[in-house]
Amino acid sequence: MALITHLPTNPSPASALPTPEPIFKTDLVRRMLLGIFGGQWKTGDRLREEVLAGHFQVSRTPVREALQELAALGLVELRPNCGALVAPFGPREVEEMYEIRALLESEATRLAGPRMAVEELQRLDEDLAELLESPSHFTGWSQRAWDADRSLHGLVAARCPNRRLAGEIARYSTFVQIIRETVGNRGHAQVDALREHRAVVGPLLRRSPVKAAAAMHTHISEAGRTAVKAIQEILKPIKRSTLR
User: Fold this and answer.
1) Crossing angle, helix 173-183 and helix 25-37, to 10 degrees?
2) pLDDT at position 187, please?
3) For position 20, what pLDDT does the model report?
């Protein structure tokens, strides 16, 4: 087990973490996730609160809260009298997270469907159709695609009558956003996602929440497979460097 008592003086671009003020818990979670994805911290590394607080130029309180959130995602282990350790992380762990998301969001879609207004679904469907008709290399297209993605998943969570279920979905939001940034539109992932979103919205417009839930499950499962491929690509150079 390695003890993290300092941070790299020449971090790679994936782990180069600037420290603008103020830094909030959500931002800390995002930066720590990038550090784990980028190989800055490896399985078994100890994350000391005081070292992280000094690096990010914040108090230990938001660092502690960020570590607790990472622990809730299974990416960090909090051990008594030991502190925080980086948990095993790799393609299988990513796959498991998406399996959980698929179960949660498909059920939320089924429950939320009857509570969605036709007008908001029509607007979303029109936005998705417009994006699919526009060339993906246009400036701003990728950001608009992510905005549409968040609109659908956010609408499902907002209309879900089971607030505990919606809360569980929200816990994965930062992790999912980091994965999105990692994957980007490689392999036309965003284009495929837009088509899958329309496959969810269509049944919702026809008031078929069960079919919409099945389409949501398929969409997230496909996103999980894409995410696993992206993580495998990230980990390849890290594994090679440890073998030298």
Assistant:
1) 50
2) 65
3) 44
Two tokens at 125? 């469907």
- Section 195-209 average pLDDT: 98
Both tokens of residue 175? 């992790």
Q: Would you say the C-alpha torsion 135, 205, 103, 78 has a positive or negative sign?
A: positive
- DSSP letter at 77 equals E
How far CA 161 is from CA of 118, 119, 129, 151, in Å, comes to: 17, 19, 28, 17
- In this structure, the strands spanning 46-47 and 83-86 are antiparallel
pLDDT digits (tens, 9 = 90+) for 142-177: 889 989 999 999 999 999 999 999 999 998 887 887
Residue-range domains of the chain with CATH? 3-89 (1.10.10.10), 91-236 (1.20.120)
Q: Measured over all CA atoms, what is the biggest interatomic distance in the chain, rounded to whole angstroms? A: 58
Query: Measuring CA to CA, which residue among 161, 225, 170 is closest to residue 192?
Result: 225
Q: pTM above the 0.70 mark?
A: yes
